[in-house]
Amino acid sequence: MPHTVNTHRRHWLQASLAAGVGALTQPAYGQAQTVHWPNKPIRFVVPFVPGGTSDIVARTVAQELSRQLPFPVVLDNKAGGGGVPAMQEVARAAGDGHTVILGHVGSLAVNPYIFANTGYDVNHDFAPVTLLAKVPSLFVVHPDVPAKNLRELVDYAKRRPGQLNYASAGNASAGHLAMEYLKLTTGMFMTHIPYRGTGPALTDLLAGRTQAFSAGTPALLPHIRSGRLRAIATGTPQRLASLPDLPTVAESGYKGFESVQWYGLMAPASTPSDIVKRLQEECNKALHTATIAERFASEDALVGGGPPAEFAALIAQQQRLWKDVVARARIRAD
Question: Does the global pTM surpass 0.90?
C-alpha cells in the first residue's frame, strides 16, 4: 500500500511539474492575444491639424489599412505643443496594437533637444514600426517677393534684415527646421512666425501676410501649379520629377545641403514584438498597393515599409543631424 501511495504521489508531482513548466513556456498575455489582433478599431494619432503633409500621408495609409484589416484605422488629429501632448498620450496608452502615432522629424529627432522635460523618452517609450514615407521639402515664397530663385531670395533678404517673415506649421515642425537649416547655410535672416499647423500657415502665406514657407510637396504643389506660390528650391539631393525646372539648394551654390521630411509609424514601447511585426507587415502591404504607389509618386514621395530596425537607424541618424542644427540655430520650444 505505501508503495502504491508513493507511486500515485510521484505521478501527481510529475504531472504538476509538467503543467507548471508548460505554463511558464506559454507566451505572456499580451503576446497570446496577438492572434486576435486587431479586435477593435485602431486609433492612429496625428500630432498636427488636418490639411498638412503629415495628415495627407497618415490619411492615405489609414484608408488603405482599413481596407486590409477587419477593423478600421481611425485618424485622431491632436495638434499643439510641438506634438508633445500627443506623444505623451500614446506613450501611456496600452501596448495592444490599437493605438499608434505618426512620428516625424520634429517629434522624434528634434523635440528631445528643445524640450527640457516631455515626460517621455522617444528612444525608450516608443517602438519604431516602419517608415511610411520620405517627402521632399520645398522652399516657396509669395509672388509679391521679387526673388525668382534661392540666390535672389538670399540677396533680397540680406538687404532687408528683419523685414521678411517665414511661416511654419509650428515650433519644431519639419518646415521650421528646414527653414532654420537654410538660414544657417545661406547666412540670411527671416523672422519665424509659428502657426498651429500647415493649413493656417498656408492661409496667411497665400494672403501675403508672410513671405516664405517650407513644407512637403503634397501640401504645396497645387498652389505652385496655380501660380499662387513660387517655388525657389527643393531640399532633395536631386531635382523632382514633378518640378523638373526647380533647382536643388545644393545646385544653387550650397553643396551638401539636404532636407527632406519623413514620417513613420510608432507604437507604445510595451507593444509586443509580434504585434509590431504585424503592424509593419500590414503597412508594407498597404504602401505597395497601386493606390498609394500612384499617390506618392505623383507628389515625389518615396515609399517606406521597411523593418523596424531600419526605421530605428534612420531616427538615430536624424537625431545626430538635428541636434547640431538645434544648437546652432538656438531653436527653442517657445
Answer: no
Which helix (H) or strand (E) segment is 263 a member of? strand 260-268
Is residue 55 a contact partner of residue 48, using CB atoms and an 8 Å limit?
yes
> Distance between CA atoms of 105 and 177, rounded to whole angstroms?
9
Per DSSP, the three-state class of 123 is coil
The answer to whether 100 and 283 are in contact (CB under 8 A) is: no
Task: State how far the Cα of 161 lies from the Cα of 159, in Å rounded to an integer.
Answer: 6
Cβ-contact 190, 184 below 8 angstroms: no
Spatial separation of the C-alpha atoms in residues 7 and 319, rounded to whole Å: 65
CB-based burial of residue 281 (10 Å sphere; 0-12 exposed, 13-18 middle, 19+ buried)?
Answer: middle
Write the CA distances from 192 to 65, 165, 212, 229, 272, integer angstroms.
37, 6, 10, 18, 41
Q: What pLDDT, on a 0 to 100 scale, did the predictor assign at position 334?
A: 67
β-pairing, 191-194 vs 165-168, is parallel
Residue 68's CB is within 10 A of a number of other CB atoms, namely: 12
Smallest CA-to-CA distance from 329 within 213, 179, 197 is with 179
Q: What is the pLDDT of residue 26?
A: 35
Question: Which tens digit of pLDDT belongs to each residue from 9-64?
Answer: 444 444 444 444 333 333 333 344 445 899 999 999 999 888 778 888 999 999 99
Main-chain phi, psi angles of 38, to 5 degrees: -85, 150
The Cβ of residue 85 has, within 10 Å, a number of other Cβ atoms equal to 15
Q: Buried (b) or exposed (e) across 143-159, using 16+ Cβ within 10 A?
A: eebebeebbebbebbee
Q: Which regions in the chain score pLDDT beneath 50? A: 1-34
CA torsion angle for 324, 327, 328, 334 (degrees, to 10)?
A: 130
Please write down the HEC assignment for all residues of 284-330: HHHHCCHHHHHHHHHCCCEECCCCHHHHHHHHHHHHHHHHHHHHHHC
